[in-house]
Write a structure and sequence with these properties.
Elements: H1 22-42, H2 53-64, H3 73-108, H4 123-141, H5 144-155, H6 159-184, H7 188-195, H8 200-234, H9 242-251, H10 255-283
């Protein structure tokens, strides 16, 4: 049988080196620049002003005063006391926020409504759910700094105003995010429990909570970390803690004290991050 010649392989086509989507990316990059430029002009964003001699020299002198940080025993005792006060403000504020957020979140979760089992929610539960969502929106739309300024006028200077400010703002944030987390997960187990006669709290504890506990815990610890930063900021308006200590140090241009306070802030954030990782691992 005569051998037939094998047809030659087709020549490989040259691979295109140009990204086929480059025109769209370039267009959207230019469009974003066109949209952002008016905002930069409106806000008078001029970063080159930092390099002017009149601004650069004082800034360098102040930053140079950061080293070495102040570490004498008297200041470290004061720093430890204000650190504990800052953590106490954040923890107390977040605890009150949880007492406010958890019931509001459960009221605004659609899957825990008995009337939603048959399809569309009834008018009464639907209206209550919408009112709760509006309340959560109102609480989180007002910054904690504004709440603190209000409570300073009511209860005077001190940690109480900071605790109440964090409680209201973070109550709205936690309630909204808790509700979104519970509704975005798998609701089959919860629905089955409620269809078989379980109450709302039973369906929550045995259906929704176990599968969302890790995410809820992680977000709560993250909010505690944010509350620590917020309590420090609230100290600038008289709520006490590390913020008030930093405010007095900055007014005196004492960079070494500011550096010590910033190091404590970094340590607190690291502590919160480590707690979050440990809790998530324990719940995994």
């Amino acid at each position: 049988m005569p051998l037939t010649a094998t047809p030659p392989y087709p020549a490989r086509r040259s691979v295109a080196l140009r990204d086929p989507a480059w025109t769209g990316r370039v267009f959207w990059a230019l469009a974003s620049l066109v949209l952002i430029w008016p905002a930069l002009v409106l806000t008078e964003f001029k970063p080159w002003a930092l390099l002017e001699p009149g601004a650069l020299k004082p800034a360098l002198n102040f930053v140079g005063a950061f080293f070495p940080p102040r570490t004498d025993a008297e200041f470290l005792w004061l720093l430890a006391r204000e650190t504990w006060r800052t953590v106490a403000i954040a923890t107390a504020g977040l605890t009150l926020a949880l007492l406010l957020a958890i019931p509001l979140a459960l009221l605004s979760v659609r899957v825990l409504s008995l009337s939603s089992l048959t399809g569309r929610m009834a008018t009464g539960p639907g209206l209550l759910r919408q009112l709760v969502r509006w309340l959560l929106m109102l609480l989180r739309s007002v910054p904690e700094l504004v709440w603190a300024l209000v409570f300073v006028r009511v209860v005077g200077l001190g940690p109480t105003s900071g605790v109440l400010a964090i409680a209201l703002t973070y109550g709205g944030m936690l309630g909204k995010v808790y509700a979104d987390i519970l509704e975005s997960g798998d609701t089959h187990a919860t629905t089955s429990l409620m269809r078989n006669g379980a109450g709302r709290l039973q369906a929550f504890f045995y259906g929704l909570l176990p599968q969302n506990a890790g995410e809820l815990t992680s977000y709560t610890v993250y909010r505690w970390e944010c509350a620590i930063r917020s309590s420090a900021v609230l100290g600038f308006v008289g709520a006490g803690g590390l913020g008030q200590l930093m405010d007095s140090s900055m007014k005196m241009f004492n960079g070494s004290e500011v550096a010590s306070v910033l190091l404590v802030f970094m340590a607190l954030v690291w502590l919160a991050d480590s707690m979050s990782a440990g809790l998530r691992k324990a719940l995994a």
